[in-house]
Structures are given as structure tokens and as C-alpha cells.
Amino acid sequence: MGLYLDNGYIDMDWIMARKATGYCIIGGRGTGKTYGAMKYLIESNKSWLYLRRTAEIIETIKGESFNPICAMLRRMGIDYTLEPEGKITVIKYNDVKCVMLGLSKVAGLRGFDSSYIDYILYDEFIPEEHEREIKSASTALMNCYETINRNRELDGHPPVKLILLANSNNIFSEILQGFYLTEHYMSMIKRGVEYEVNNPDGWCIVYLANSPISRAKSNTFIYSQGNTVYNNMAIANSFGSANIGDVKSLNLRGCTPLSTLSDEFTIYARPKNDGLYIASPVYGQCLEYTNPDMFARDHLTFARCATMRLCVYQTVTIKEKFLSLFGIRH
Description:
The chain is an alpha/beta fold and 330 residues long. 32% of the residues lie in helices and 22% in strands. Strands 3-4-5-2-6-7-1-9-8 form a 9-stranded mixed sheet, sandwiched between helices. Strands 13-10-11-12-14 form a 5-stranded mixed sheet.
């Protein structure tokens, strides 16, 4: 028993037995994340919401031919019906339901009865490089969860369980940052840890760094083509397109505070003209701004330092905030 089954795929039953409300699982392609999660939910005989990023994705896969839930039910020998209910698609089996929705459309469905839903499975929550993240994705997901969960905990009922699945496309994912999971993943990567249960926050966080399936796939056709960034994401699970080598905590001795953006960060000059260090905000030591636009307008020199890779960032979250402020792609 453990994170992986004997056949090398992830053991979803073992993961879901960890005491948590949210489960975030990031791993290479084909490691059993979606298969294992859907199989677990179907066998639990509970109703669930299958969530994807946009309504367009749901529209593409909701029919019999491309529907992953229908395919799983057929594989398991379970009879089902697939039918529309207004703007949503519903799969009924064993007296329970699976509702298929795009996150971008959930806001328009507030007020509908979701009391029967016990799980939310958000598949592929980190977009691929060529895809666009929906605006305020973490807020949209929080609103979705609130719509489904309502006041269950206040009424003495268990909360809806949230399962997030993704490939390691982008550690700067807005959802990872919105739920404060980015730093957890950074810490796990540095420590070589594959799972962690953070009870105060209610999360079980999984990072499939040593998947036997990923290792076995490394010699197959597509991964022998030499595309390092793709291979890092798909089989090495190392957030291949993210530049995080400049994220580290530095000793402030010898650093000179230059400017602070309130509630966001302070910029320091590092000793010996060694570039900039962007860290948690301090107050009363340098010029302070409360308006991000004014800060960006007055500090274009800092932006040039970033493009010249002369900056070190205390955390991934601070790096994302700093670069986004100046419209710099990482």
C-alpha cells in the first residue's frame, strides 16, 4: 500500500484515504490521475461534478464518442443514461449523477440545487502553454465550490470534497497561487517529497516525482524526440517551462531596501551591485507605494533588471506578482 499501485499507476484509494477536504494531484501524462479519480468516484456511488476549464471543452467531450465518464462506465460494465438538463449535461447511473460543467459557466448557474453533489473533480486545471487561463480562475473556483457546498459544515454535514488534477505545465498557475499551494509544491520539490497532508489548510498535496509509469514511458516514440521542455512536463513532472532557479531566500545582511509596494513586496539592492532581491514587504525603511500602477510607472529600471535576469525572488508567488506588474512573461 502506498502512493503507487503494483502496476505503477497512482493508488487513488490510498490518496483519498488521507484525511483532507481538498486533494491536489500533479503528475506527468498518463500516470493514472484522471482514470483513478473517476474510478474512485464511480465506485464510491456518490454524485459528483466533473469540471473542466471552459464550457467549450465540455461541449467537445459531452457526447458518447469522446465522453471520458461514459467510457469509464462502459469499461466497468455499468449501465448509464446521458441526457441534457437545461444548460448542463448529466450522466445517471446506479441512482447517482455526474454533472458535467465548464468553470467559466458556473457563475450563471447560481441558485440551482446541488445538495446531492458530494465531490467536485476539476480535471486539467492547469492550462497547457498554448491555452489561456480564464480570468480570476481561483476566484471562479472558490465561487463554484461555495455554490455547490453552501452551508453544509454549518448544518453539521461533511463538506464537499474538491479534487484537482493537472500535468505539471505551469507552477505559476493562478489556481495554485489562489489556494496558496505554489509554495507548498516548491517546498516538496526541494525536499524530494511526493505527498503531504496539510491539515490546518485541509489539503492533501501530491506531486508524482517518481512515477514508475513516467519512467517506463521515457523510451517510447514521442519522448525520444528530444523536446526537453515537453518531456520535463509529461514524464519528469518538473514544471518544464517554469524558470524557478532565481527563487530562493537570501540573508538581508548587506541588502539595501529601495522601494515597497504595500502588501506585496519590497525591492532590495543586493551587495556588491549584484542585482535586486524582491522579498516580503517591510515598512518604514524606504519609499512606499500603495498604487501598483504608480509603482510600475516609477520603477521601469527594476523591470529592465528582471528582463536581464538580475533579480532574485524570495518566493514563486512574489516573482509572479512582480513580473505580472510589469507585464513580463516568465
